[in-house]
């Protein structure tokens, strides 16, 4: 079987920077196959005329190219997606395209030139200068391909590449089911493209040269697929001198020439060189293991919230006769990830560098449904997850093994990654489903080509295994792969190619989180009473639990036409565009704030619900840390399309109150109030004891009058939760006919606020009449430029005012009033107590200087302030 994998796998490159490597990412043209009469040999002849061919977006999908050429409307706006022809109805030829690219390159002396494709969907034949490059068509979205094109290059250096790309053989009927009729899963491609409950069908099913195309030049040796393992024994702390760590290193070395090549293979890390003399036989590819290296006093990599994300640059070289034949560069995080079963919770516990980590995670689909990936977008999205105070992202199985650039961002920001392979319970047969074309027995065997799946798994493991952030492997979403895929994956591929990470058979398996409750083992997914997160025990390591996520009014205006901005009614059917964008109802959770007057009013009240939902979710799970739970993973934290559910920020990278409620509830050191019994408690996710903490509780009425309850010094141990005092009697004695605000503060001996939390409490009827009638106030607002990419916004609420409640801060262009996106706020939707002020820091990645700040709140009129 292992030999079969080898025959199926092409010689594959690694994503790190190589000695001489560049992308073919501009100057492509394309044409539909029905308009082209010539074959690949003719098209790849540099003399063949391409007049009238359409500029192509590579990397990109066919649909991306059509959109960029204004051949189709934006499928993310309104009902535009319905105006685009679906491949299921048109037939595959409609989205089968030739892509052609002219480039300059030639080989001199012992140089070797490699053509590399990091992703083609779904099949492709490749031609260069009139010659066929691949003897058999490339197949499979999740499989890289590399070809030695040295002998096919033109002696003049002027070359033409022609690639014909076909959609999946079976594209699936987008009939409204999860993955449509399920048959999209017969091929090794993205299942979500046939539609899901959070996205409409992607009309071309992601057909195209969707990932990077590169040319790499080496000498007579090509080094690829390095494998780095770091061993960090014992229990470590982020600070202080560290005991040594062990670095294990191996790499594939290919000699494509007809003669053996001798030399020295070496890598450098932390100023040290580790090397080995080797001889690589002619026409061979050999894995070479270098001697283990003991790294003294290592700078360790930690998850976000626990320590620094230290990364070591590593340079790998093959040197022969004082000439570097090839080299690669990568970054290595020194850490060790272990899993230990928690017999009390009956779930797996995650440990990093010997320290237990309470998992606070979010589910990730894909960055963009049309695969328009960029380093900047990945960086922004992962940073938002760090800003939520999360420490893990789970990659859902109906999409991709994410791109190396995504993992680079996770390495940078300290987000552990839980990586699914390409299976889902919906398409792959877990449940009876009348919308599926074939029965469960048949769907259970999808995809049809199992050897191709194993080949792609081997390739994918090699692609991402060196990232410090990669923490866990998972066979699939809510279902295992078929047995003849699962067993080789568990017993051969992962032990041989990785061997360092926990593998879960499927995302809600008992080996991860024992299901003593029955049901599916994850969820629920709808809006809940915040008390339920505290009082109802659910699955001990819940891989999917989530709620709503409608953005604010500015967000809604980006993709919902004006005539469709109609308020959804409680228990009623929403407007057709809202329904099309997968709106799920807020049920009766809006009405306690007053029936929504219009879409703008609805969106503002939805933010109150959003904040309350996600703060309560993470506080509730954290309150039972190590007792009921070892972690929870929110379904879901982002959208690759303009959906109206399950998101902390919208497709356009504009955050909503979900993000800041979650950020508040997930603080590493956090003070909180149990909504069931009004118990004040503190959760400490860190590794150190905190002594001399001041725990303070007050209440404020709607006029801003303060009611002091208590403040006490106390301490809390590492990775623990501690209860301090209840507020039941205190709150009962207050007149709650209009509700009150509860202010909790956690301070150190220097009276610095370490954690602050403000709750708005309903009146005796469970409504918020006080909020509906609260007086307006106008805090003083200043905005100062701190450096090129940072603005400090200060809100000051004078004594005698009511609390300035729930203020949204937005960095905008001074002239156009358009929001600067992305922008990263260290807090938002903030409430300012009477006599206090808050300074919010905003960071933005662009070079925008023409800035202003817009602030509006529940009882604060919209105000714009120029940044000075």
What portion of residues is helical?
10-25%
Tally the helices: what do you get? 16
- Give the number of DSSP strands: 45
The shape, in one word, is globular
Strand content: 25-35%
Sheet with the most strands, sense and barrel status: 7 strands, antiparallel
Mean of residue pLDDT values: 95
Q: Report how far apart the termini are.
A: 67 Å
What structural class do the secondary elements suggest?
A: alpha+beta
Low-confidence segments, given as residue ranges, are: 1-19
Rounded Rg: 28 Å
Report on this structure:
This protein is α+β, with helices and mostly antiparallel strands. Helix content is 16%, strand content 31%. The protein is built from 16 helices and 45 strands. Strands 3, 4, 5, 7, 8, 9 and 11 form a seven-stranded antiparallel sheet that branches. A seven-stranded parallel sheet has the order 28-27-26-25-24-30-29, with helices on one face. The longest helix is centred in the last third of the chain and has 25 residues, at 599-623.
How would the blueprint of this fold be written?
Elements (H helix, E strand, L loop, with lengths): L1 H7 L8 E2 L2 E3 L5 E4 L7 H4 L10 E2 L6 H7 L18 H4 L6 E8 L7 E6 L5 E6 L2 E2 L5 E2 L5 E4 L9 E9 L46 E6 L3 E10 L13 E11 L5 E9 L2 E9 L3 E6 L3 E3 L16 E9 L2 E10 L4 E6 L4 E6 L2 E3 L1 E6 L10 H13 L4 E4 L8 H10 L2 E5 L19 H4 L6 H15 L5 E5 L8 H15 L4 E3 L25 H6 L5 E5 L7 H5 L18 H5 L18 H25 L7 E4 L22 H9 L3 E5 L5 E6 L5 E11 L5 E11 L3 E7 L1 H6 L7 E7 L5 E8 L8 H5 L6 E8 L2 E8 L6 E10 L10 E2 L4 E3 L3 E8 L7 E6 L6 E4 L2
Parallel strand pairs: 24-25, 24-30, 25-26, 26-27, 27-28, 29-30
Antiparallel strand pairs: 1-20, 2-12, 3-4, 3-5, 5-11, 6-10, 6-12, 7-8, 7-9, 7-11, 13-14, 14-17, 14-18, 15-16, 15-19, 19-20, 21-22, 22-23, 31-32, 32-35, 33-34, 33-36, 36-37, 38-39, 39-43, 40-42, 40-44, 41-43, 44-45
Helix pairs in contact: 1-8, 5-6, 8-9, 13-14
